[in-house]
């Protein structure tokens, strides 16, 4: 996603001035003067001739181009699976890029062998991406190995031959072998899993040398400069889909090299989240897990792991799509946005930020720097609903966020409700929320609230559904929020009729 605008701005008015990008590509140190805005996928295939990384949709949906990106994290290297069709080359400075070629051994790896044994490859085009994602799961997953966990790791990989049954059998065999009673259980339990996999000859030996190798590469240097910048790129998950052909020849600023705009912290009863925080970093934060207990389930509906490792909260907001999933979740939380032009700073309530379709209350030189919302209390209930043609990796027909705090006797004290896909902007249901405050949660209250909510919506008919259908979803989602969060007070059967 893109945070910011296409002109010179400020967070310290800095510009990445590296003429050369230096990183480790598998077991080789690379130093290249290729354009920083060039996609990693294109660099791998055209410059390095590593064609195991496939070009498929080039929109981040199919996972055929999946790679691993490693960066220093304490004493080790933290790897993340991403789709290389959405990642700019300049951001690889000081990183370790792992392609399918980089995990090859003299023989087949355990993942490759499992795919062969269970017939998990047909035309073979998607196979490298699947193997990269499955290998990451064995390298990095926390907790016990499970089939569900492996399936979520490969949720961003599509098999167009529909060979999922075989791939699932291969996944299950790996989970069994690394599980508590499996022959490789000690590898899974090792404190340093990567080293254990190397010792077992399941990963190439060079992986254990990578922490020291990366320490020898300089971090990107930021210098004072006011030159015009054509594109500001954060996660890249939208701008490379929309304008990917223009970026390699343009002046590009990699916002992800600004660490102060990243991370989740708690301060004075609020969460303060850097705008460059990725969806996955947000999901994994312990405080967010406490505030939103079902965040893992919600994130599975929003994007694949590969996209969550790249997409940023600020980018999703500034993109201003009426059906932005994360935007609508945050909108319901009573969120404020901190904007800065590098000299002055101001706050805007998120519900007032969207003025019209793709029109924002943001001045020309401003960036979103922080996203702020209350920590919540023991009484806070949060829910997210989404309907799309596919369960995962699909654009919503309608999505909705919900936050409510009620007293012990069921009286609503605070509430926030958003609806995406039913207006020109992400819609905060102001009238519905005003009606609900002070009322007792019961079927009569919810029934009346649905009428107000349907009146606030102004959907249009499009390829994802008719206006009438979307308005009906507003009603159904509001019912779903209350039955999910307050099942002891609201029965779906009484409201669905």
Tell me what the structure shows.
The protein has 3 domains: 1-16 and 231-375, Uridine Diphospho-n-acetylenolpyruvylglucosamine Reductase, domain 3 (2-Layer Sandwich), CATH 3.30.465.10; 18-220, Roll (Ubiquitin-like (UB roll)), CATH 3.10.20; 378-497, CO dehydrogenase flavoprotein, C-terminal domain (Enolase-like, domain 1). It has helices at 40-47, 110-117, 127-140, 147-153, 164-178, 185-189, 193-199, 210-215, 239-243, 279-284, 286-291, 295-302, 305-308, 313-319, 325-331, 430-436, 443-456, 467-485, 492-496; strands spanning 14-16, 21-25, 28-32, 66-73, 76-83, 96-98, 222-224, 231-233, 252-254, 264-267, 270-274, 336-340, 345-349, 354-356, 359-360, 367-374, 380-387, 398-406, 412-420, 427-428. The protein is 32% helix and 20% strand. α2 (110-117) crosses α5, α16 runs antiparallel to α17 and α17 (443-456) packs antiparallel against α18 (467-485). The protein is of the alpha+beta class and 497 residues long. It is built from 19 helices and 20 strands. Pfam families: CO_deh_flav_C (PF03450), FAD_binding_5 (PF00941), Fer2 (PF00111), Fer2_2 (PF01799). One of its GO terms (molecular function) is iron ion binding. InterPro entries: 2Fe-2S-bd, 2Fe-2S-bd_dom_sf, 2Fe-2S_ferredoxin-like_sf, 2Fe-2S_ferredoxin-type, 2Fe2S_fd_BS, Ald_Oxase/xanthine_DH-like, Beta-grasp_dom_sf, CO_DH_flav_C. Residues 190-378 form the FAD-binding PCMH-type domain.
């Amino acid at each position: 996603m893109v945070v910011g605008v296409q002109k010179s701005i400020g967070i310290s008015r800095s510009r990445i001035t590296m003429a050369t990008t230096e990183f480790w590509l598998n077991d080789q140190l690379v130093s290249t003067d290729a354009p920083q805005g060039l996609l990693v996928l294109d660099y791998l295939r055209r410059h390095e001739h590593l064609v195991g990384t496939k070009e498929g949709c080039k929109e981040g949906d199919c996972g055929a181009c999946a790679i691993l990106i490693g960066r220093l994290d304490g004493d080790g290297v933290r790897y993340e699976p991403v789709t290389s069709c959405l990642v700019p080359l300049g951001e690889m400075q000081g990183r370790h890029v792992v392609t399918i070629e980089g995990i090859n051994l003299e023989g087949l790896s355990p993942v490759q062998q499992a795919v062969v044994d269970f017939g998990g490859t047909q035309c073979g085009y998607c196979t490298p991406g699947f193997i990269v994602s499955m290998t990451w799961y064995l390298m990095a997953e926390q907790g016990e190995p499970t089939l569900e966990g492996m399936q979520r790791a490969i949720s961003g990989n599509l098999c167009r031959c529909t060979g999922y049954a075989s791939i699932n059998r291969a996944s299950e065999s790996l989970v069994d072998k690394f599980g508590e009673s499996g022959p490789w259980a000690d590898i899974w339990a090792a404190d340093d899993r990567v080293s254990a996999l190397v010792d077992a000859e399941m990963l190439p030996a060079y992986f254990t040398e990578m922490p020291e190798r990366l320490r020898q590469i300089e971090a990107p240097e930021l210098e004072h400069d006011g030159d015009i910048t054509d594109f500001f790129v954060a996660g890249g998950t939208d701008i490379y889909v929309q304008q990917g052909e223009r970026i390699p020849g343009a002046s590009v600023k990699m916002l992800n090299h600004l660490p102060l705009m990243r991370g989740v912290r708690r301060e004075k009863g609020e969460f303060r989240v850097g705008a460059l925080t990725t969806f996955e970093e947000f999901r994994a934060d312990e405080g967010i897990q406490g505030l939103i207990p079902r965040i893992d389930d919600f994130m599975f509906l929003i994007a694949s792991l590969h996209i969550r490792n790249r997409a940023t909260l600020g980018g999703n907001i500034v993109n201003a799509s009426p059906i932005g999933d994360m935007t609508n979740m945050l909108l319901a939380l009573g969120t404020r946005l901190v904007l800065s032009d590098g000299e002055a700073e101001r706050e805007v309530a998120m519900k007032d930020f969207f003025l019209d379709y793709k029109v924002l209350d943001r001045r020309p030189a401003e960036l979103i720097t922080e996203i702020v919302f209350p920590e919540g209390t023991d009484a806070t209930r949060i829910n997210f609903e989404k309907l799309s043609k596919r369960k995962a990796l699909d654009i919503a027909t309608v999505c909705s966020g919900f936050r409510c705090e009620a007293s012990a006797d069921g009286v609503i004290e605070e509430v926030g409700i958003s609806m995406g896909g039913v207006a020109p902007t992400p819609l905060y249901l102001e009238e519905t929320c005003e009606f609900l405050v002070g009322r007792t949660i019961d079927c009569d209250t919810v029934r009346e609230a649905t009428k107000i909510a349907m009146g606030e919506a102004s959907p249009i008919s499009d390829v994802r559904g008719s206006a009438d259908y979307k308005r009906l979803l507003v009603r159904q989602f509001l019912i779903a929020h209350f039955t999910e969060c307050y099942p002891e007070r609201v029965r779906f059967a009484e409201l669905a009729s």
